[in-house]
Specification:
Elements: E1 4-7, E2 15-20, E3 42-45, E4 50-54, H1 64-79, E5 84-88, H2 94-107, E6 126-129, H3 137-158, H4 166-180, E7 183-187, H5 189-195, H6 198-204, E8 212-219, E9 228-238, H7 247-250, H8 258-273, E10 278-288, E11 300-302, E12 308-310, H9 317-333, E13 337-342, H10 346-352, E14 357-361, H11 366-379, E15 383-385, H12 390-394, E16 403-404, H13 413-422, E17 430-434, E18 440-441, E19 451-452, H14 457-466
Parallel strand pairs: 1-6, 2-4, 2-5, 5-6, 9-10, 9-13, 12-16, 13-17, 14-15
Antiparallel strand pairs: 3-4, 7-8, 8-10, 11-12, 14-17, 18-19
Helix pairs in contact: 1-2, 2-3, 3-8, 4-8, 6-9, 8-14, 9-13, 11-14
The protein binds ligand BES and zinc ion (2 copies).
GO molecular function: manganese ion binding; metalloaminopeptidase activity
Family: Belongs to the peptidase M17 family.
Keywords: Aminopeptidase, Hydrolase, Protease
């Protein structure tokens, strides 16, 4: 259900939000002295229908506080079953207005499809920005479209692995392609075999559904032949394979297709916004299951690129499916840049927790990494770079084979995984974003729900505008 965005100073019948900086005069006498306007402190006056939200000290202000504040307002309105939220503020910049709309939309969400009616989240339908903000109309509508796609990604990541299967992801991608005039091709088992994509085939060989690479093409620029290639890890369920995961580590492994879902959300958003870029998105889709057909530890497998890989752990499946997909896409589409999203390693969760995604990139991608970092700060889907020094790249050399899939020590796991991937992109600028810690979270934050977060869609759209 789409949110209606109004430009009106009349918030009759809606929850009306007012902001207050720390130390400013409280707008209502009935407010207690203890309310000082600290960041994201809230005070609700039900008889007036007004919610006052603190923004902290003026000097410490960040635009993200608007996102978080708006999400708090959406949640409060929802809990009182108020159908709309109006914002009263005299000097919102375009970025402030965008942040407020993002916060409202992203906060106005819950994965509740399995809840009975009285357990469902009440969704707010309307948001009113001040009349003078009408000049931001276009950018605000654009942001609303992207947020709707973030919801789609969240749904895909949060739902059961027996719902979001390879077949389901393909169906979803086909429906999106049809509606948005994206070109779609899907490589199934037979085609993957013909092409020699033995890594993705090995990972998927215990699954009843064929592994597949879903390719979506968006042609937004007539004047340029340059393409950006996006790649996403789409493991619909990761048991670990024969190197089976312990129970607790397996619990959330329905989310291991978040990279693929993110790329789907980005492609849909790019098409809906009419970005003037050419973008190709590849989803590397399968399941990492167990059974008599399952691939085994220490198998040596020949990749599509021709290199052989000794695979030391069947739970390191992500890098394998990505390796074939990256080198196939690089060869077929000759992109100027490759950006890849994956829930690749537990190691990145240990490093950054759920606040920041790990970014890695080749030396020739320096300018793009800087733009990705900036897009991260702007959208607050933040990335932080970790190094790919040559010592790390050298660790990928195999003993019995060209490459090994795991390092010889149990250290620097996220960096090793990234180093391995760079072996499959030739000399093209390449950025890998490890979203294992950010794609799904255990506890809701203001505008991020528990479970699938949709992290990466807003980031990538902002990034794509810059390149
Ligand atoms: N899907 C996991 C990574 C993961 C861990 C995602 C936690 C989200 C949360 C990946 O396939 C995996 O199992 N990685 C292993 C690699 C190891 C075997 C080299 C890991 O990180 O432990
Ligand atoms: Zn795994
Ligand atoms: Zn995995």
């Amino acid at each position: 259900m789409a949110m209606e965005i109004l430009f009106s100073d009349d918030s009759n019948g809606m929850l009306s939000v007012q902001f207050m900086n720390e130390g400013d005069k409280r707008p209502f006498n009935s407010m207690p002295e203890s309310f000082t306007g600290k960041k994201l402190e809230t005070f609700y006056l039900p008889e007036k229908g007004i919610l006052v939200i603190g923004l902290g000290k003026k000097d410490d202000f960040k635009a993200d506080y608007y996102r978080r504040a708006a999400a708090k307002a959406a949640k409060l309105a929802s809990s009182y079953k108020i159908h709309g939220v109006g914002f009263a503020a005299d000097s919102l910049s375009e970025n402030d207005a965008i942040a407020i709309v993002e916060g409202m939309l992203l906060g106005n969400y819950s994965f509740d499809k399995y809840k009975s009616d009285d357990g469902k989240f009440f969704r707010v339908r309307k948001i009113a920005l001040p009349t003078y903000a009408k000049k931001y109309h276009e950018s605000v509508q654009a942001v609303a479209k992207v947020c709707t796609n973030v919801h789609m990604v969240r749904d895909l990541v949060s739902d059961n692995s027996d719902v979001v299967t390879p077949d389901f992801l393909e169906k979803t991608a086909r429906a999106i392609a049809k509606k948005n005039r994206l070109h779609i091709t899907v490589l199934h088992e037979k085609e993957l075999k013909r092409l020699g994509m033995n890594l993705i085939l090995a990972v998927g060989q215990a699954s009843a559904q064929s592994p597949r690479i879903i390719v979506l093409e968006y042609h937004g620029s007539e004047s340029s032949h340059e393409k950006v290639m996006l790649v996403g890890k789409g493991i619909c369920f990761d048991t670990g394979g024969l190197d089976i995961k312990p129970r607790d580590s397996m619990l959330d492994m329905r989310m291991d297709m978040a990279g693929a879902a993110t790329v789907l959300g980005i492609m849909k958003s790019a098409a809906e916004l009419g970005l003037r870029k050419n973008i190709v998105g590849l989803l590397a889709v399968t399941e990492n299951l167990i059974g008599e057909k399952a691939y085994r530890p220490k198998d040596i497998i020949r990749a599509y690129s021709g290199l052989t890989v000794e695979n030391f752990d069947t739970d390191a499946e992500g890098r394998l499916v990505l390796a074939d997909t990256l080198s196939y896409g690089a060869r077929k589409f000759n992109p100027k840049l490759i950006v890849e999203f994956s829930t690749l390693t537990g190691s990145i969760v240990g490093t950054f927790g759920s606040h920041v995604a790990g970014m890695f990139g080749t030396g020739n991608a320096a300018e793009y990494k800087k733009k990705m970092y900036d897009a991260g700060m702007q959208t607050y889907e933040r990335v932080w770079e970790l190094p790919l020094f040559e010592e790390y790249l050298d660790e990928t050399a195999g003993d019995r084979s060209d490459l090994r899939s795991l390092g010889k020590t149990r250290y620097n796991g996220a960096i090793f995984g990234a180093a391995f991937l760079t072996k499959f992109v030739g000399d093209r600028p390449f950025i890998h974003i490890d979203v294992a810690g950010t794609a799904m979270i255990d506890e809701a934050k203001d505008y991020m729900p528990k479970d699938g977060t949709g992290f990466g869609v807003r980031l990538a759209i902002e990034f794509l505008k810059k390149v």
